[in-house]
Design a protein that fits this description.
This protein is an alpha+beta fold. 47% of the residues lie in helices and 19% in strands. It has a five-stranded antiparallel sheet with strand order 1-15-3-11-12, with no helix packed on it. Strands 6-5-9-10 form a four-stranded antiparallel sheet, with helices on one face. The protein has a three-stranded antiparallel sheet with strand order 2-14-13, with no helix packed on it. Strand 9 and strand 10 form a beta hairpin. Helix 1 packs antiparallel against helix 10. The longest helix has 68 residues.
């Protein structure tokens, strides 16, 4: 009985030391992490989802902006007046047409080019001097005062050219033989721009009377109207048309200005492409299985996607605010939406509208607005589209608002993370304190175990002797 009792007591004492040597710090951390990690992971997942939404909204904003740019290529009259120029005598003159030009046909006859007055000095060596250190210059009715030089041929040429931008008069040295040079002075074109250049020494006297070429005006006949101009670059005869005269015509040349529909067709094609880019981004952002790295599956279940789709669909299918004839909407240009929401373009229908109803197309798209959009009247479907997209992209629009909300939620989640970390830090400190106290108790139990074991072993020794 005694042996059994000692054995039981020894087992009890051994049990008191069972926790001795345990890593209580790791135990405390594991207990804290068991509570902390799931909450932390949940908050980080919410942060990731909100960041994904921000990326999704940014992608949608980008393609919407590109759609707006496509509309901006169709919103003013200048976007449509691209002219094809046909000129039967290109050797006599070139023609450029701006967006202000009108489709039209003209008869052009050039009978004289505008030329400058040209004077030359007598041949002289470069070493000549005393030709005039102060040259009095007059062009037409304008007195430019004196042009000062060192009186040498090269000095005079350099002094004249130094003021060419101001006076329109230029000079050069022309070598006439092995040792002789001539000063050649040219003024601006046009009869009214005769040049007088008088040296104070009397050696250099240039004027219209001793010119080797007198100044002349350009003379041309446009649609039976006789005109003269002081320059060969003429831009004030036909609106939006600039003539660059190079020679005389042989009889009357035929000039034809016709509307070039190719640029407009290209712009409409870009509009279709830009709309489909929006649909593609919205689809990938909304699709939970999308693998697009930047924004795929970022807006799964987000009603913003459907809201934007509905607004854009309404925009492109509605009648223009400025219908014209039978051209009332984009559908009349061959634009339609298929069952998947993609925009398609019937090129044959578009070509027919551009060839036969060009003016109606322009009015439907832009209302022929030149620059300023008027809020009280129709502005065409392109300007209506620009306004709609501008509203969507504005700081008060749905995309910016949703992005701001996502940023706000991220800040809130980060604040919750900070508070969680603070709580878990305090909890870890409490566990460490509690486990340290428990370890101390275990240590004391260990000492008691050692003492009791020694006593029991002494008693057993006594019993053994007996």
């Amino acid at each position: 009985m005694a042996t059994s009792s000692v054995s039981s007591s020894t087992n009890f004492v051994n049990a008191l030391g069972a926790g001795s040597g345990m890593d209580v710090k790791a135990l405390a951390e594991n207990l804290v992490n068991a509570e902390k990690v799931p909450r932390e992971e949940a908050l980080n997942k919410k942060i990731d989802l909100s960041n994904a939404k921000i990326s999704g909204y940014s992608a949608v904003r980008y393609v919407l902006d590109q759609f707006k740019v496509a509309f901006q290529g169709l919103n003013t009259a200048s976007d449509f007046n691209t002219m094809l120029v046909s000129n039967s005598q290109t050797s006599a003159f070139n023609v450029t047409a701006s967006t202000e030009a009108l489709a039209s046909q003209h008869s052009i006859e050039v009978t004289q080019l505008a030329r400058p007055q040209r004077n030359t000095s007598a041949p002289m060596p470069l070493s000549s001097n005393g030709l005039g250190t102060s040259l009095a210059l007059t062009v037409g009715d304008t007195n430019y005062g004196t042009i000062d030089s060192d009186g040498s041929p090269a000095g005079i040429v350099n002094a004249i050219n130094a003021r060419k931008k101001e006076t329109g008069v230029s000079a050069q040295l022309v070598k006439v033989n092995a040792s002789q040079f001539q000063i050649v002075v040219s003024g601006p074109t046009g009869v009214a721009n005769s040049v007088s250049l008088m040296g104070n020494s009397g050696e250099l006297q240039f004027n219209a009377d001793n010119a080797v070429q007198t100044a002349t005006d350009a003379a041309l006949t446009v649609d039976g109207l006789n005109l003269t101009r002081s320059t060969n670059q003429i831009s004030d005869v036909l609106e939006g048309v600039t003539f660059d005269l190079k020679g005389l015509t042989s009889g009357a040349a035929q000039l034809n200005l016709s509307t070039d529909t190719a640029p407009l067709k290209e712009k409409i094609t870009k509009l279709v492409s830009a709309y489909n880019d929006i649909q593609s981004v919205l689809t990938d952002a909304y699709n939970k299985d999308s693998k697009v790295a930047e924004y795929g599956a970022s807006l799964v279940g987000d009603s913003t996607v459907q809201t934007i789709r509905a607004q854009l669909r309404s925009l492109v299918t509605a009648n223009s605010s400025t219908t014209s004839g039978s051209v009332k909407a984009l559908r009349d240009l061959g634009i339609s939406l298929d069952s998947s929401g993609q925009m398609t373009l019937d090129n044959a229908k578009l070509d027919n509208a551009l060839v036969n109803q060009y003016d109606d197309v322009v009015k439907m798209l832009s209302n022929n607005i030149k620059t300023d959009i008027t809020p009280s009247t129709g502005n065409g479907i392109a300007n209506d589209g620009i306004k709609k997209i501008t509203d969507l992209l504005s700081n008060t629009g749905i995309l910016v608002s949703q992005s701001k909300n996502a940023v706000k939620r991220i800040d809130e989640y980060k604040e919750q993370l900070a508070k969680l970390n603070d709580r878990m830090t305090l909890l870890l400190a409490r566990y460490n304190k509690q486990f340290s106290a428990m370890e101390s108790i275990v240590g004391q139990s260990k000492s008691l175990q050692t003492s009791l074991t020694s006593s029991f072993e002494g008693m057993m020794a006594t019993y053994t002797k007996n």
